[in-house]
Amino acid sequence: MSRRLLLLALTSAACFSDDPPQLTATVTGDDSSTTSTGAPVTTEVAPTTTTTGDDTTSTSATGTTEPATPTTSSTTGETDTTSDTDTTGGPVVDPCKFETPVCPAGPSGTQGSGQEPLDRCNFPLTRAPEWDNLGPLADALAEALPTWTMVDILADLNNTALSADAVPGDVEALELAFRWDNEDFNKYWWIPQGLTGSADARDDGRLDGREVALIGWWFDKELANVSFEKGVRVTLVDVTDASELRLRHILLVEPVPGDPVDFKPVPVRAGGIAWYGDTLYLADPTQGLRVFDLSRLLEVNANVDKVGYDPKVADYYGGLYSYVAVQIGAYKHASACAPRFSTLALDRSTSPPELVVGEYCDGLATCASAIGGRVFTWPLDPVSGRLPFDITWANSAAYTGETQIQGVTRSDGALYLTSSAPPGDPGALHVVPPVGPATVHGWIDTPRAVMLDGDRIWGMSEKSGARFVFAAARSAYEQ
Questions:
Q1: Which residues are the signal sequence here (predicted)?
Q2: Count of C-beta atoms within a 10 Å radius of residue 217
């Protein structure tokens, strides 16, 4: 504890920059005051429609269809599931095990026409070798460094956000909003993308009685004009009291073998995060999902801007952050239909809850069709918070009928999609029912991820100089 107290004393102001000198940015909008080889499978089978033809966005598949045999470890908490059983031991056989699906040719509808179901058997996720490789390394790091929980971090927040009365764009029924401090509001090499929170993580929607949001950012070293990588960070924000919005940044890291065990940044353009229990999922755009342990955050030295172990001083650093969250596993897609993991959310309206993944398509750089973006869902084991099988097929898959999707979530079969179309800053929110055409609503400018929280819907914006997070009355968007 002596080292932690020293770090807290050194970093209590926490207003120093963790990056190169700040450049000028123009503010826009109103800142008003701111299977192993046996293929165990999912228990829930959703009705699907098989579409034939060639996938216009198909690339070679990544991941493996022969995942490593699971082993139990203190980090992963997973047990051998090489037989066709669910995590409770009951026999399960998913029809997808015996299917040879064909990738779809592309959407047949028009923009706004609604969801177009796809054959879910096209979209399996496999348990990747990272579960076996990273687990022991994470355990070793937890032995070498002090560990803390998210509840502990909630009692050790070291910076503030600023309450806002309005946000840029056309948001109806605004209930709560905040902007970042001047450094994070303007800095354009840390880019906010993902959004989750205690509404996803806990059954009661609270972390130790507090309502919190968790924001994901990715680091652009070219914009920062530095040679080293920082990867991805998340920001825990206590939003219980709008007059006192406190926060702390946490760096995500991947353990690497060594003597001692080391860690490195996670250099992906992270587009989405989802928090369930003590597990954090990070969308890895072309690979699938990375998984991080939030039950054992590591305390590191925050005084030097480097990441990892420095043998000269025998100490670990977290890029000027005091805490890091360690990757413990991954799920890789094994689909010839090449799903892209652009954004990520959690659907708590289903039993069990499901991860929701959406694709960004613009018809130019990505996808042959501007409305070729798909949405997929995969079930979570409600106890472990992990995917339940070595091979887990999607519970559902569909074309969305919308373009340039930046954020997605789902409830009772309805999709909530944020879009950066048309060109320019204005954003839109598309609500797409299970059957029938979508409705479109005004939304925040430069929108990114979206989250449902009971009677509220959360959103956020990306643009440097106009970065806000907000909650609005959900009823205003379901009429």
A1: 1-17
A2: 23
112 DSSP 8-state letter: T
Q: How far apart are CA 133 and CA 138, in angstroms?
A: 9
CB 384 within 8 A of CB 70: no
Predicted model pTM:
0.83
Q: Mean pLDDT throughout 351-378?
A: 94
For strand 323-333 and strand 246-256, is the pairing parallel, antiparallel, or unpaired? parallel
- Give residue-wise pLDDT tens across range 271-327: 899 999 999 999 999 999 999 999 999 999 999 999 999 999 999 999 999 999 999
Tell me how many degrees the CA angle 77-287-285 measures, rounded to the nearest 5. 115
Element (H, E) at 219: strand 212-219
Q: Tell me what pLDDT residue 93 has.
A: 83
37 C-beta neighbours (distance < 10 Å), count: 11
d(CA 473, CA 171): 10
Question: Cα–Cα distance between 61 and 374 in angstroms, integer?
Answer: 17
Measured CA to CA, the distance from residue 384 to residue 131 in angstroms comes to 14
Query: With 80 as the cut, is the pLDDT of residue 55 above it?
Result: no
Average pLDDT, integer, range 463-475: 97
Q: How large is the average pLDDT for residues 455-465?
A: 97
Provide DSSP, 256-275. E--SS-EEEE--S----EEE
**Residue 414 backbone dihedrals phi, psi, to 5 degrees:** -90, 140
Contact at 8 Å (CB) between 181 and 15?
Answer: yes
* Helix locations, 22-168, DSSP H: 130-144, 150-154
The set of residues, in sequence order, having a beta carbon less than 8 Å from that of 235 and lying 6+ positions away, is: 214, 215, 217, 247, 248, 249, 250
Per the prediction, the chain carries an average pLDDT of 85
d(CA 127, CA 290): 11
β 246-256/159-160 pair status: antiparallel
Distance CA 305, CA 296 (A): 22
Quickly list H helices, 15-105.
none
